[in-house]
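Sequence of GTP cyclohydrolase 1 type 2 homolog (Peptoniphilus gorbachii).
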Amino acid sequence: MKYQISEIKNYMEGWARKDFQLSWDNSGSQIEFKGDTESVVLALDISDKVIDKAIKMNSKLIITHHPMFFFWGKKNYPGNL
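Predicted 3D structure, token representation.
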């Protein structure tokens, strides 16, 4: 089964609304792929092990509790495959 990444992102943003985050928090997409994915990898933190798991599962979506990039500026990088 394939899942639309945009639908998952929209659901997550509706559930964890941006108006709940603190000013210093870097929530939301940081590296974003378009299209669909066959699986979703969930983790507390991003790590090489988590990325390897996503590659093995052919997943284009990793959802973590802690951001990959934690700094004073919000950025979103487009992903390319």
